[in-house]
Amino acid sequence: MRRELLEGPIALTLLRKCLPVVGGMIAMMSFNLVDTWFIARLGPQPLAAVSFTFPVVFAVISLAIGLGIGTSAVVARLLGQGDHDTVRRRATDAALLALAVGVLLSVLGLTTLEPLFRLLGADAALLPHIRDYMGIWYLGAAAVIVPRVLNSVLRAQGNTLIPGLMMALAALLNGLLDWLLIFGVGPLPALGVQGAALATVLSWSAMTAALFWQRELRECLDLRHLTPSGLMASWRELGRIAVPAAITSVFTPLALALVTRIVAGHGHHAVAGYGVGTRIEAIAQIGVLALSMTLPPLVSQNAGAGQHERVRRAIFGCFAFVLVWQFGVWLLLQLLAPWLLASYATGDEMAGVLRSFLWWVPLGLGAQGVVILAVSSFNALHEPGRAMRLSVIRLFLLTVPLAWLGGVLGSTQGIFVGLFLANVLVGLVAWHALRRRLDAKRQGQTSAEGKA
Prior knowledge:
Layout: H1 4-7, H2 10-40, H3 44-81, H4 84-111, H5 113-119, H6 127-137, H7 141-156, H8 161-183, H9 193-212, H10 215-218, H11 228-264, H12 268-284, H13 286-304, H14 308-344, H15 348-360, H16 365-380, H17 384-451
């Protein structure tokens, strides 16, 4: 097992771990864009039908993310404690839990397919396309969930290269299969939206199979000592972190939907400008999101090893870095703003909204990065309740109310000022909350050492 996360230089170690994650995230962003581009060639009805599936697909992915967070936190802490036998038990049981959840979702999804999508608003014209797509996608639910858990086991050991590479290869395979299966090439028939779903399932299945060939992962899996009582104990431990993390993952799109509704009250040009802005924002946060996946294993391993001062230096060093980094991104966006407006704005009103967005919202992304890293750090410290409370404060006590108030007082610019203020305020709350918690842990360790 690797000791780099316990002994290596913090900044250099995190940099090396982040770079493959950034590549994998860019590949995953292209995954849905490629699917959407190919499906759009089939016509407006298939595209609208697949658009209806996004909330369901995102809910499943959120569950997979939660399982991955729980697995990474548990496995990394055990690695820090040097308990390799229990690492194998927890990693194996996490993979089995992911498989069981995938099979359960397949059964539930297929049996509730039409009622669910009717409830979501799909009409009779779109339901055949939705059945074609989700009928295959649901069959591959386990293939979507299992590799995310397996990747989290590797990241818990400090290996981010293989997960990043696997995500990139899965995205490339998906693009190739989309072309072959949606439109048909040579002897392959044109399957339409069924081909898009099949391409997704096959690419994730291939990724899962490739992961099982990794020696480092196989060494963490062991079915020889599987018992029902041990399995239930593992699942309870994993679920204690995974369930709150999955719920927290769902909070973000819910809050964004509420903000979008607030923006929509100011006209179509406002929604268009805000929509472009949010896509630029997602790209501007890639560095923070990569850190949020690479910092937790370092935190968990070192917390497990009792190296709380190293945990503190890692977390607050990352806080300082993202504040400086995101300010640099804000400056870059101001330089690129004329080009972005010329490329995306379709009129003066939309251009005004987008320019206001680019000035205010990215200015608060450093503080938002602090919050994102604080949430991931609390999960890594096995305190998911604190992580969830911090997310609720950010999204529902500050972001949505201040966006609404800003819209009432100052149109779309007021909304964006509200988003900026919400990020700054909750960033201060996150910094203070994590500092207090780490201080308490350090004092507890000092007291224990004094008594010894």
